[in-house]
Amino acid sequence: MNFIAIDVETANADMASICQIGIAKYVDGKITDEWSSLIDPEDYFNPINVDIHGISEKDVIGCPTLPEVAKVLGTYLNNSVCVCHTHFDRVSIGRALTKYDLEEFSGVWLDSAKVARRTWEDCRWSGYGLVNLCEKIGYEFKHHDALEDAKASGQILLAAIETTGLDLNAWLERIKNPIDPTKRPYHSAMTKEGNHDGVLFGEVLVFTGSLEIPRREAVELAANIGCTVASGVNKRTSLLVVGDQDVSRLAGNEKSSKHRKAEYLISTGQSIRIIKESDFKELVMHSRRTH
C-alpha cells in the first residue's frame, strides 16, 4: 500500500515539454505527502494545450526547469512503486530526462489504467479514462491539474486493491498477464484493429505528416500496443501522431488537414492528445518492456 502517484502536463506536442508535475505519496493507503510545481519547459506553449490545462507561458516565468527539480523528483521516485494513469506520464518523464541528459529514476512503474481494466469488467475495453473511473469509484477531483490527476490515479489503484483483494505486489505481477486469459491470443498482422491486451487499447490513433519509419510499419506497431489505427480524424480519434519534421512547425500555420481538424475537435471539448513520432516510438518501447 506504499507507492508514489505522479502526473504531468505538457506545453505542446513534444512529450518532453513538461510544464507541471504533481506527486502524491501514499503510505499504508493514505496520502502522507504532496508535491506540485509548475515547470519552465524552455519551449513554446501550444494554445491547444493551454486550453486543456490552463497553464501558459506567463505562468511559468521564474519557475524551475526540470533539471532544477530533478533531485526532488528523485527523492520520491527512486526505489518506489510509481503509479501513473496510462504510459504517457512515464514517457514524458523519460523524454524530459533524455532532453537534459539526466539519469532515469530507479522506480518501478505501475499503470493504473491497466489495473482498472483488469479489475472492473465493464472497463476492460472502454471507459477506463481517469474521469470515468473516478466517477465509478466516487472520487471527485479537478481534471488536468497534475497533482489532482496524480491523486486520482492513486485512488483508482486503492479502489482496485479493495475490490479484488490483490495487494500492490500482486498487481505488479497481474498486469503482466492478459486482461482475459480465455481470449484468443493476438497475432501480429497488418490490421487496424488494436491488440485487446495492449497497454493503449481503446485509443483511436491517426498518423499525419512525414514519418521516419514506413507507414505500414507504424500501423503495425500501433496495433500491437492496442491502438485502433484510423485513416482520418473524427469524433472517435483520441491520439494524433505527427511526424517530427512537421511538429517543428506547430507554432506556425503549416499543418496538415488532419492536424487542423484535431485541433478544432479539441477546441470543442474532444480529448485528443497530439504527440511527435519520436514520442510514439518511446510509447512503443515502454509498452514492450511492461507487457
List keywords for this structure.
17% strand; globular; 291 residues; 9 strands; 2 domains; alpha/beta; Rossmann fold; 4-stranded parallel sheet; single chain; Nucleotidyltransferase, domain 5; 38% helix; 5-stranded mixed sheet
Structure summarized in a few sentences:
The protein is 38% helix and 17% strand. It is α/β, with parallel strands linked by helices and 291 residues long. About 3% of the residues have low confidence.
Query: Could you state the order of secondary-structure elements as H and E?
Result: EEEHHEHEHHHHEHEEHHEH
Radius of gyration using CA atoms only: 18 Å
| Relative helix content | 25-40%
- Strand portion: 15-25%
State the CATH class of the largest domain: Alpha Beta
Going by helix content, strand content and strand pairing, the class is alpha/beta
How many separate helices?
Answer: 11
Number of domains: 2
Number of strands: 9
Write down the CATH topology of the largest domain.
Nucleotidyltransferase, domain 5
CATH 4th-level superfamily of the largest domain: Ribonuclease H-like superfamily/Ribonuclease H
Mean pLDDT, all residues:
90
